[in-house]
Structures are given as C-alpha cells and as structure tokens.
Amino acid sequence: MKIAFYAPLKPPDHPVPSGDREIASALLQALRRAGHDVVLASRLRSFDAHGDALRQRRLQAVGRRIAERLVARWQQDGSPDLWFTYHLHHKAPDLLGPAVTRALDVPYVVAEASIAPRQRGGPWAAGYALAHAAIRAADMVVFVNPADVAQVRKARAQDAAFAMLAPFIDVARFGAAGVATPGARAAGAPLRLITVAMMREGAKLASYRVLADALARVADLRFELTIVGDGPARGDVEAAFAALANRVSFLGAREKPEVAALLMQADLFVWPAVDEAIGIAFVEAQACGLPVVAGNLPGVAAVVADARTGLLAAAGDPAAFADAVRRLALDAPLRARMRTEARAYVQRHHDLPAAAQRLDAILREAVARHRCAPAAALPC
Fold first, then answer.
1. Rounded CA gap, 72 and 336, in Å?
2. Number of C-beta neighbours around residue 6 at 10 A
3. Which of 138, 144, 247, 322 could covalently link to 112 via disulfide, CB atoms 3.0 to 4.6 Å apart?
4. DSSP states along 39-73
C-alpha cells in the first residue's frame, strides 16, 4: 500500500533526538519492511507547549492550507491507500489527517493517541477538541502505551477498532546485541551502572534527581555510574549528582553504535522513568543483555518483564529504587539470569520483524473496516 505518514508532535527526521523521534523512525522502518510505500505527508509541527491560543489558531490555519494542498495534489496524482498519524494529543493534535482522509475517502489510522480529560477546558481546549474528534474518526487506533487505552476507548464508539503494538527496535542493527557479553572486570571491581536519557526540564530532570537520591542511599556499595545524554538541563543534572561526583561520568550525547557498546560493557541499566510514556531506552538496554531497574509505570512495564529482565520499583520513590539497585548489586547470579533473559525477551516481543508483521495485519484490518463502513458504498 501507499501510506501517508504524519507525526504532528515531531517528524521522524527532526534534528533533536528523543524517544518520540525514535519511535516514529521505527514505525517508518516497520512499514517499509512490511512492503509498503511510505511517504512523509508533512513536517508541520502542531505542538504548542505553553497553551498559547494565538499560536494554536495560526497552526490550525496553516494546517487547513496544507490539507487543501495535499487533497488537490493527490486527487490529481493518485491518493494514498491509507493515512497513518503517530502520536497526537491535546498539545499536538492532528490538523491534517481527518480533513485529508474525509476528502479522499481513505482509511485513517492513528497510533499512540492519548486523551487527558482535565484538558477539556483551559488553554489547550481547542487542541483537546481536535484530538478527541480525530480519535473518534479513526478507522483504527493503535496503542503503544497501555496507559492510553482506557480514556481513548471511552472516547470512541463501543465497537470501534483498536489494536496493541509493542514498542520495538531493530535488534539486528543495534550493535549486534544478540551476541553481546559483558566486558571482563577484576574481582571486587565496582558495579558498572549506566543510564541513557536527554537532559531537559520536567520529567527527565525529575528522573535524574530521583536517580541521584536513590544512589546516594546505596553509597556503601561499590559502583560507578555512566550517564549518556545531554541537553539544556545538564547543569541541574550535574548538581543533582554533586555528592556522587567521584563515581559519575558524564559522556554527553553519543551515536547509537557507541551507546550499544557502552550498554554491553555495563552491569545494570538504571532509570526511574518519572512520567515516562514509553521507554525505548529500556528495550535497547535489554537488547544488549542488560538487566534494568526502573520505575513501575504502564509504559515501562510493557517493555520490562519485572523479576525476569529487571526490577520495577514504585514510581518516583527513591527508597524503593535504591532497594532494587541494592538487590541486584548483591546478587550476581540473578543479574546473570536476567542478562540472558533480557536478550531473549526483546527478540521475542520487541524486535522489528515481528512488529512489521503485526503492523501490516493491523493496517489491512483497518482497510477492510473502512471499506465496510456505512459511508463507503462498497460491498463487504
């Protein structure tokens, strides 16, 4: 199929790295692996971080013009077989997909859509209404984060279609992780901890502060922490780890092959994941055979098998996180079992080939449902 792909929050080729960009890129890769011809419909970012009503109105006007141009072009040159929007919500509604798919009468699929009822009023009320309408209009909603299911299904008709898609990476390209082994280290050497995350205000900085607090509580253990990541909050992150400065190495942002190599040499991946929606970093760590300690949130629990590939601690609780780190630090056989299981778990549940096959089946169901919809004058 010819698929029009759109990511209103951040396009997959955006220059700033993030988990959102990683997932968008992975979806493109899976669609193409399944044999589809994927075109990027637009790079329009509908994101409004501050609830600016004027900015929202301007974005909506731009969106209408772009949608009209897309419809005119595709009516002349041949329309796509399906429109796929990744990640829409009240701060980044889909300003293109609903209008284009109505005009062209093609299936409309959305992935990682979320609804926050408290945003029905207030500065993002317009974005909330647009996101809500788009979610209701979709032929298929694909859930990546289990936390979104309840509210989104409540917003849609009782018989509306939905599907689950596990977060995934291309394990074969991620540093040959399937054959990784930890580097040799001397007996009694410090435990090698690692985390990989952007440094910015909000949830990321909160996670770094929880991590610093937790590790201060296990300062009696011998460990070293490597932090991979950078961003505007780096100064605040470094300040949070001031008491552990002699144990922490800040490596800045690194490319994927180097990240994979660093993960393979570590003993434990640690990240509290405060308000984390989907933790692709956890998938990458486990693909490298690395046990995980993380905060217990739905999006994290969807990619980390608690007590099998890592330990999930109460979200935002430094004491609980510290206890989990201590347990794995002192139990080398458990870490070894988790290391082996982590690789196998990711290959079974979060690898690209299975995701491509699953996504292809979901889209073909969406096309079939669209053809059978009452508005479509086609026989089922």
1. 59
2. 27
3. 144
4. EE--------SS--HHHHHHHHHHHHHHHHHHHHH
Alpha carbons 204 and 210: distance in angstroms, whole number: 10
Q: Is residue 353 predicted with pLDDT exceeding 50?
A: yes
Measured distance CA(221)–CA(219) in Å, rounded: 5
Q: Please report which helix (H) or strand (E) contains residue 366, including its range.
A: helix 352-372
C-alpha to C-alpha distance for 100 and 66, rounded to whole angstroms: 10
Write down the pLDDT at residue 106.
97
- CA 228 → CA 24, 155, 260, distances in Å? 21, 39, 11
Q: Average the pLDDT over 324-353 and give the result.
A: 95
Tokens for 139? 């032929």
Angstrom distance (rounded) from CA 3 to CA 270: 38
Q: d(Cα 238, Cα 236) in Å, to the nearest integer?
A: 5
- What is the pLDDT averaged over residues 6-11? 95
User: From CA 320, how far away is CA 177, in angstroms rounded?
Assistant: 30
- Contact between 143 and 166 (Cβ < 8 Å): no
Q: What angle do CA 130, 135, 137 make, to 5 degrees?
A: 95
272 closest CA partner among 234, 224, 311, 232: 311
pLDDT value at position 187?
63
For residue 83, give the 3-state DSSP assignment.
strand
Output the six-digit token pair for 200.
Answer: 């910015």
**What tokens appear for 352 in the block?**
């690209």
| Mean pLDDT score across all residues of the chain | 93
Can you tell me the distance from the alpha carbon of 250 to that of 294, in angstroms, rounded to the nearest whole number?
20
Amino acid at 164: M
- H or E element, residue 293: strand 292-296
* 372 — pLDDT class (breaks 50, 70, 90): confident
- Structural domains in the chain, sorted by start: 2-168+352-372 (3.40.50.2000), 171-349 (3.40.50.2000)
Degrees, nearest 5: CA angle 309-313-319: 135
pLDDT computed for residue 176 by the predictor: 54
Q: Is the full-model pTM beyond 0.90? A: no
Secondary element (H or E) of residue 318: helix 318-330
Identify any residues that bridge with 111 across adjacent strands, giving them in sequence order: 86, 142
Which residue bears the tokens 């990027």?
40
